[in-house]
Amino acid sequence: GPTPTLRPRAVLIGPPGSGKSTVARALSLALGVHGRDTDNDVEQRAGKPIREIFVDEGEPHFRELELDAVLTALREHDGVLALGGGAVLDPRAEQGLVEYREAGGLVVFLDVSLAHAAPRVGFNTARPLLLGNPRAQWQALMEARRPIYERVANLRVVTDGLRPGDVAERIREEI
Ligand code: S3P
């Protein structure tokens, strides 16, 4: 069977602006374990920022790199893992998360309203999927993905009005 100590203790999922990266940092510090972020893994391997991958190679190529980063991290990483907002869309990623849960891992959906996500995202040009009308795009993404976030997670934390440290503490109680 899987070796629990070789696996991340918590995986954070949720839309852009839900605070996944910041909470992952706070939680990994609190637990004294490594923190990892699949967006960073993809950027490191590609040698360029995500928005450039979208421009140069397109979203499908980004999703391939992302799936590989997610499955590798779920397999190798021991600590706290933050996933990109769309990383749960691939059924193979979802399957990986189901197996991770079955091995005792905690998959946390950071739920957030548009009003609280907006200032975090900044709705600048850094996220290629939110160009054009960022608020409408964000809402469309969230509406389409909410069912996936909800069925993949075994813990949901509504982060509205909470500081990253509070969210981390809430998760720590469940580990
Ligand atoms: C995406 C979210 C981003 C990044 C990419 C695509 C998405 O990550 O992976 O721009 O599809 O929601 P964050 O959720 O960290 O912003």
From TrEMBL:
Q: Name one GO biological process term.
A: aromatic amino acid family biosynthetic process
| Reactions that this protein is recorded to catalyse | shikimate + ATP = 3-phosphoshikimate + ADP + H(+)
Keyword ATP-binding recorded: yes
Q: What's the EC number here?
A: 2.7.1.71
Which pathway does it operate in? Answer: Metabolic intermediate biosynthesis; chorismate biosynthesis; chorismate from D-erythrose 4-phosphate and phosphoenolpyruvate: step 5/7
**Annotated substrate binding sites:** D39, R63, G85, R145
Q: What class of enzyme is it?
A: transferase
Q: Where does ATP bind?
A: G17, S18, G19, K20, S21, T22, R127
Family, according to the entry, reads as follows: Belongs to the shikimate kinase family.
Q: Please state what the protein is called.
A: Shikimate kinase
Q: What is the lineage of its organism?
A: Bacteria, Bacillati, Actinomycetota, Actinomycetes, Micrococcales
